[in-house]
Amino acid sequence: MAKPKALILTGYGINCDEETRFSFEIAGANATIIHINDIIENKSLLKSYQIFAFPGGFSYGDDTGSGKALANKIKNNLYDEMMSFLTRDTLMIGICNGFQVMVNLGIVPGLQQPIGTTEVSLEHNASFRFQCRWVDLTINTHSNCVFTRGINRLHIPVAHGEGNFIAPQQVIEQLSHNNQIIMQYTKPDGSLADGKFPYNPNGSMLDIAAICDTTGRIMGMMPHPERHIYFMQRDDWTYLKELSKREKKEIPEYGEGLQIFKNAVQYYN
Length: 269
Hints:
This protein has 269 residues and is of the alpha/beta class. It contains eight helices and eleven strands. The chain has a single domain, classed as 3-Layer(aba) Sandwich (Rossmann fold), CATH 3.40.50.
């Protein structure tokens, strides 16, 4: 079976493009990094891909607010093509700054149809500081989200200054009712963080770390799955490695974040 083709966006401060490409390649996709200006010059490029990824990174240095400038560039130059891409049986993921771009484009949560209305916001962390740490996440197993199929929990890192998920109460209720709240920050024991720092690193309402659209094909998330592709990337990997040896258990090769990308590839197989 042919490998699905993944387009990894780059340009203007995006800095996780290589890691995202590598993650999709390891998962079995044919992934290509393309500068946004090259897509603008050849808009038909989008027709050749099944997966589109907005990687993390500080596009435009977060000037005017995280993800806003890049979202405006897309609105002014690629909006129709982007919407056409999403009408096909395609997948889209936005990670960290990519999530912020998608929110500003109105791609997620997509409660209002046609999509394109900004309905939620990712604001400055409640600590008013950049947060770079590992977090624990619980996954909504009742959701139809393609990217999280078969995943119950995740331990992956965050690295952002504006990840505080805020929305009107009516929108929060709709997201909850539709099972569009995909990931929530938890304490190590699996109970919800309940807004408590550092388990919830940014102060997000309902400890929200990721949401999807109503179809389950489009997901935005603040944590970085591409930074936990191998087991040895974990913050506690030396402890777990020694524990596995003593318990005579096999030491895993891959990390928990890889399954996100595998699910995207398996969607087309």
